[in-house]
Amino acid sequence: MSNFKKHIQKIVKSSTNCLAVNVSQNELTTLIETFDCVFVLDHQNEPYRHKSLIYRESYDSLASIPDIKLIMCHERELINMTKFLPIISKSKPVFCLLQGGLVSIENTRELNSAGYHTLYRRKHFQFWGHRGKSKK
């Protein structure tokens, strides 16, 4: 089991649904192994086929996704933070930010204002949880 998968399982207790936004096939494979259903919003890569993947066309269709436990995206997707608000207000998921280094303060300002704080940091990813949720 990969180190990354262990971190996901430790921080996200329930493995029902997650949302992946423009992530690589390696990251999708890890999510498929960890979650029952993976919703994918991807405009960059060719569709990857698997029975537990459900592709979404736009951010507008995110409000209808039930009980999201994790949102995995790259730091650059935080400019679309307002489009995640329907999910954030409904289920308060953990964010997994993928990056090549430290995440800049400007990019995390939206997460902080939505009530999120850093749960766990590594060189290539960070987990952010809603205040009130703690890593146990």
Q: What this model shows, in words?
A:
The protein has 4 helices and 7 strands, in the order H-E-H-E-E-E-H-E-H-E-E. The chain is of the alpha/beta class and 136 residues long. A 7-stranded mixed β-sheet has the order 3-2-1-4-5-7-6, sandwiched between helices.
Number of helices: 4
User: What's the total number of strands?
Assistant: 7
The span between the termini is 20 Å
List the helices and strands in order: HEHEEEHEHEE
Helix content percent band: 25-40%
Label the structural class. Answer: alpha/beta
- Backbone shape: globular
- Average pLDDT taken over every residue: 82
Strand order of the largest sheet: 3-2-1-4-5-7-6
Largest sheet: 7 strands, mixed
Estimate what percentage of residues fall within beta strands.
Answer: 25-35%
How big is the Rg?
14 Å
Unreliable segments (pLDDT under 50, ≥5 consecutive)? none
